Amino acid sequence: MYNSLGLQDCFNYIGMEVYLFHDYSMLIVLFILIGVMLSVLVILGSGGYMVKGYRSSEFLELTWTVVPGFLLMSLGVPSLFLMYYMEGAVKYDLTVKAVGHQWYWSYEIGDYGEGIEFDSYMVGLDDLVVEIHRLLNVDNSLVLPYLTKIRVLVGSGDVLHAWALPSGGLKADACPGRLNVLSLGVCRPGSMYGQCSEICGVNHSFMPIHVEWVSWEDFLMSHAA
């Protein structure tokens, strides 16, 4: 029950950092809320005497200047670090291009061999073998190697889309005529599911994303096939 109130469990590097920063931010907000509530209770309990009898206090003025500044700095520094980390100013091992269409995704991987290009459509309800991932299954999954630094170039061929992986803490708008960049990488094999999170048309909810993480050997074998 508690897990359903927070973010999805992340198993990629950026998602973990986003999750930790979210929890830390909520802790700061809780600290501020408790401090304000205690101040209100003290003032109400004193019948307003503390407010009426207040003249000046250099220590109090210094405190309510330094403490908020320290809290803002403790939020701003990791926020900037996370922003630059998500931009991914590093050397990549693999580049993937994801292009949104009405209503499917097309992928290109051109770093090895002659490259791979394929389209990924949602599997219809009539074709599902097991309805455990209803509206999330695709006919061609994006297979990528884990423990790898991957750059994802996100674009669109028609209207606005959004390539989003909630379990990875990632989302990028797919704009016509423009490429947005995401840094992607996980530490263990598995699967990630996502959907287009932009209202791109009547079938907006029917263009899911499925990324399957495998070893480099399996990735190269699937690439060779």
UniProtKB/TrEMBL annotation:
Cofactor (UniProt): Cu cation
Q: Which UniProt keywords apply?
A: Copper, Electron transport, Magnesium, Membrane, Metal-binding, Mitochondrion, Mitochondrion inner membrane, Respiratory chain, Translocase, Transmembrane, Transmembrane helix, Transport
**Location, primary (coarse class):** membrane
User: How is the co-factor bound, per the entry?
Assistant: Binds a copper A center.
Annotated localization: Membrane; Mitochondrion inner membrane
Cytochrome oxidase subunit II copper A binding domain mapped to chain residues? 91-225
**Which biological process annotations from GO are given for this protein?**
ATP synthesis coupled electron transport
Q: State the protein's purpose.
A: Component of the cytochrome c oxidase, the last enzyme in the mitochondrial electron transport chain which drives oxidative phosphorylation. The respiratory chain contains 3 multisubunit complexes succinate dehydrogenase (complex II, CII), ubiquinol-cytochrome c oxidoreductase (cytochrome b-c1 complex, complex III, CIII) and cytochrome c oxidase (complex IV, CIV), that cooperate to transfer electrons derived from NADH and succinate to molecular oxygen, creating an electrochemical gradient over the inner membrane that drives transmembrane transport and the ATP synthase.
Protein known as? Cytochrome c oxidase subunit 2
Q: What is the scientific name of the source organism?
A: Halocynthia roretzi (Sea squirt)
